[in-house]
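Extended Data, record Phosphoserine phosphatase
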Amino acid sequence: MADTAKPVVAAFDFDGTITTRDTFVPFLNLAFGRFTVGLAFASLAFEGLKVGLRLSNRDRFKEKIVARLFRDQSVPRLSAAGREHAKRIVSLVRPQALERIRWHRDQGHRLVMVSASLDLYLEDIAEHLGFQDLLCTAPSRTQSAFDGGLEGLNCRGPEKVRRLETLLGDLSAVELHAYGDSAGDREMLAAADHPHYRPFESG
């Protein structure tokens, strides 16, 4: 049984857990245009096939998409696109997820968003929803341009747990609720005292 004297943390995945669907590809379409994004995915069709055959993985594929689309792109332009995207995807938040986030906040629990989606739009969304912390994937950049890489690893799978440990320390010292909907959340759910798998799909 979890020690109720421990501080309580609620870690939420974003795409498919808080929202009704993916938000990454729609952001790419907004920022770069559907034609450019379609060409980028088509150029990586062989890499996609390797992912399907388990000869590569989704993290590697995402790195290649980011490299293809983001390199030398303007930071101010894509930051503005991220803010616009955040406004659009507020409507995708599941009512039951919002209710649960509010419940945790009212209980004084620490809210952490842990997502493989991008900081460019998640920063605004996390603030809007009342999260204290955001752990997510971030394209690396200079002051004015993206360089085509990522800051660290894609925030998925074991990386979600590593990020939580970096933020919180030993996870056994907290009472952890974790909310997720996919294989990319498996390790985070396994590390939680209270794992919640696809809890909001009816809302």
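Summary. The radius of gyration is 17 Å.
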